[in-house]
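Marked as duplicate of an earlier ticket. Keeping the data here for the record.
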Amino acid sequence: MKKNLIKILSLLLGMSILLPCSAAGLPKAESSDPDADAGDPETVGSAYAESVEVWKRIDIVLKSAKKYKNPYKDVDIDAEFVHEDGTKIHLYGFWYGGDEWRVRFAPTKTGVWTYTVTATDTDNSGLHNVTGTLTAVANTGSTDIDKHGFVKISDNGRYFVHDDGTPFYWLGDTNWQAPNYVSITQCN
């Protein structure tokens, strides 16, 4: 019983440390819309800025013109982002709740990106044939991902690199020994 309690408390302690840290790097919404949720990532829409830093996530927010009985099954949305140099990225969107749908995108290079969102329900003007443009600007962050891009497998498949080819040095650590240093009296 004592060991199980220590394990549970260690797990809760680890989660309380990791969860706030994992959300710390997300961009915050900057909007003139008073109803906008400040905890969301930056969004593109009628009241939102249409530029984003390279390698930062942005949400394309779409309002459905129709209600669906089961949004998970009744309609799918896809988006194609095209950079001014011809690079194409294809992404899927998802139902966010209510009449709201989103496509999450993180530009991989600076410049102008145009996008087209299509839906399987071609009669829904809020989701089908929605187009837009956004401008990706240089990233001003200080982390390796901000400076060098997302992590991917190298061309030879032997190690990890960032988008720009910079080696990715992976450091993993665990808290496996934490229960050995915590007593029941310290937990109370």
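See parent ticket for discussion. Residues 17-39 have pLDDT under 50 and may be disordered.
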